[in-house]
Design goal:
alpha/beta, five-stranded parallel beta sheet, Rossmann fold, about 40% helix, 2 domains
């Protein structure tokens, strides 16, 4: 063989070796995540951004090394069990479930697939976990449960409108899962000298009737508890509160963005971003029952001055300076 031909043959062999080696290497495994949400894609878009950002910060990229299977109930909570069963049949490696009804559906569908929750309910009172520190089973995650959250929201509403004396507490189907949160609201009401009227709307059709009941009971303030049924149309309750001229405080930020008066609580976007840490650890081998459930440490106060003006309310300056955001 001539020298030139020998060099070409040697070069071809050198190139073939790494190419063959690459061909033998398995492709990186794509991890499958189930996403179970009781609301609509539109409502969950901002929380989704928080989760995607959190996962990206931990090295997980949608369409790259992870693939998500989305299932939305679109406000029809009765669909959640079937949707959870679909995710189990797809053999996802972890289910991210938002709200107590979705967590219950996922837990009833599987005792082996890890479930990461994002909720505002009490997972212990709801029988989802043994304790916050030691969940046990296959459920862990983030809850905005705070024994002072609802009571603090009521106190802020009283500061904004000092003259209120009868406050309606509007809950949805998930109200029983409030547990200690509901008791904290009752305790705060006694301290503030406020009479509470608890009203539960179990279906969307009952929401108008709930406001009619508020009018009959002559309430002059409103505390709206978080519930997935209310999230389907975040414009509806703020619009009804404005129509009935009720100053209202919400525990979900989206309602104030839709025209509500006040928000106090943890944002869903931040909670979902934190949930990414749990998903990451589980995908890396951690057992959900051994991961303590976290509660947010940051709570925001948002005040909508447009809504206040429409209601004829002048928010005290002492409260405005404490707000994290004021909507002009």
């Amino acid at each position: 063989m001539k020298r030139r031909e020998l060099l070409i043959a040697m070069g071809a062999g050198a190139l073939a070796a790494p190419l063959a080696s690459l061909a033998q290497q398995p492709l990186a495994k794509v991890r499958r995540i189930g996403r179970l949400a009781p609301a609509t894609p539109a409502f969950t878009s901002l929380p989704d951004e928080g989760f995607v950002q959190g996962m990206r910060e931990l090295g997980w990229v949608e369409g790259g090394n992870i693939a998500s299977e989305y299932r939305y109930a679109n406000g029809v909570l009765e669909r959640l069990p079937a949707l959870a069963a679909e995710l189990v049949r797809l053999k996802v490696e972890v289910i991210l479930a938002g709200s107590t009804p979705a967590i219950v559906a996922a837990k009833n569908a599987t005792a082996t697939i890890p479930i990461v929750m994002v909720t505002t309910g009490d997972p212990v009172a709801g029988g989802l976990v043994a304790s916050l520190a030691h969940p046990g089973g296959n459920v862990t995650g983030v809850t905005a449960l705070s024994q002072e959250l609802g009571g603090k929201a009521l106190d802020l509403l009283k500061q904004a409108v000092p003259g209120i004396s009868r406050v309606a507490v509007l809950g949805g189907p998930a109200y029983p899962s409030m547990g200690t949160g509901a008791r904290a609201i009752e305790s705060a009401a006694r301290a503030l000298g406020v009479t509470l009227q608890t009203i539960v709307a179990r279906t969307p059709a009952e929401i108008d009737g709930a406001f009619a009941a508020m009018r009959q009971q002559r309430v002059d303030g409103l505390l709206v508890l978080p519930d997935p049924m209310f999230n389907v149309d975040q414009n509806r309750i703020p619009a009804l509160a404005a129509r009935h001229r009720l100053p209202a405080i919400y525990e979900l930020r989206e309602f104030v963005d839709a025209g509500g008066l006040m928000f106090y609580g943890a944002t869903l976007r931040d909670m979902y971003r934190r949930a990414a840490v749990f998903v990451d650890r589980i995908l890396k081998g951690a057992k959900p029952g051994e991961l303590p459930i976290e509660q947010p440490t940051k709570f925001e106060l948002v005040i909508n001055l447009k809504a206040a003006k429409a209601l004829g309310i002048k928010i005290p300056q002492s409260l405005l300076v404490r707000a994290d955001r004021v909507i002009e």
